[in-house]
Amino acid sequence: MTGAQPVILGDMPSLSKLYVNAAATAARRRILGTDAGTALPPCGHEVRGVKAQVGNLTAYQHLVGETASDVLPAGFIHALTFPVSMSVMNRDDFPLPLLGMVHLNNNVEQHEPVLFTEALDITSWAENLRGHRAGTQVDIVAEVRRTGEAQVRWKGTSTYLAKGVFLPGIDKPSVPATSTMFAAPDPTALWQLGVDTGRAYAAVSGDFNPIHLSVLSAKALGMRRSIAHGMYLASRALADVGAVKGDSFRWDVAFEAPVFLPARVALDISSVHAPAGAWQHSEYVAWNPRSGRRHFSGSVAAL
User: Fold this and answer.
1) Shared domain check, 207 and 66
2) Final residue of a domain: which of 152, 178, 204?
3) Which member of 9, 32, 155, 212 has the greatest number of CB atoms within 10 A?
């Protein structure tokens, strides 16, 4: 982490309170016409001695299709770090509105297995504020260490877009991003996602963002229906890659189109092996089997 030492939080932040505070902050800024400036917070946040709850872990593994194990899946660790990252985005000096943020990408480096019995230190901060053709984007970085140790076991970088927010002094790209035509392959899996998928993932991740919970709460935030959590979808794809990825890997995902619930999602996973037969990496893509529209794509590669 660069910059000042992180602020040490006494407890894991409550996501529900963070969402309420974010709504209040947004209303206050609209009424008073105030803003948080154009610079990122000078420091991050840290929570020490965090331990996963075995009940939550078991429910998560069952929900996304992970094998039962005492090793924390990479997606579960993301959920564990998420409240700390949210607390950084909820600071008064964070320049972008938290509510309405769009998750564009997620990149994870899993260096070593993390066991559910281990106490962990979680640190998160914001960096790389930059323009986007549709607004302003920022990276939120989270690192996980065994409590009292310096070595990073897991690192995740989530890129978010504040759509329609253009900060002064931050240029947006002059050339729009180009999209390539997507030709859907034969799927290796078909997922049937019920209308309660968002609520089920919220129960194990703690992410009760209203856009995922019901039609009414999603419509209140401008969505036509509730949508599946991006990290639920990505974590399910990672589970489908399976144990071939080993204990040390890089996991990337790019989100393109939301999955409105209920839904059917087609998934294709292709793996590349070395001449000797050893696994090198897997690529995956998910799409709407009716419209052919791509929802997300990514890869998992050995570190």
Assistant:
1) no
2) 178
3) 212
| Total number of domains in the chain | 2
Per-residue pLDDT reduced to its tens digit, 236-294:
999 999 999 999 999 999 999 999 999 999 999 999 888 887 889 999 999 999 999 99
The residue ranking higher by pLDDT, 234 or 38, is 234
76 and 122 belong to one structural domain: yes
Residues 126, 253, single domain; the answer is: no
CB atoms < 10 A from the CB of 34, how many?
Answer: 11
**200-205 contact pairs (CB < 8 A, 24+):** 200/63, 201/63, 201/228, 201/229, 201/232, 202/229, 203/59, 204/56, 204/59, 204/60, 204/63, 204/79, 205/60, 205/79, 205/82, 205/229, 205/231, 205/232
One-letter amino acid for residue 205 of the chain? S
Sign of CA dihedral 63, 199, 235, 228: positive
Q: Can you point out the beta strands (E) in 206-245?
A: none
CB-based contacts of 32: which residues, under 8 Å, 6+ apart?
A: none
* Burial per residue of 14-33, b for 16 or more beta-carbon CB atoms within 10 angstroms, e otherwise: ebeebbebbeebeeeeeeee
Last residue within a domain, chosen from 157, 178, 199: 178
Q: Which amino acid is at 208?
A: F
Question: Which residue range forms the structural domain that includes residue 224?
Answer: 182-303
Average pLDDT, integer, range 79-97: 95
Residues 173 and 209 in one domain: no
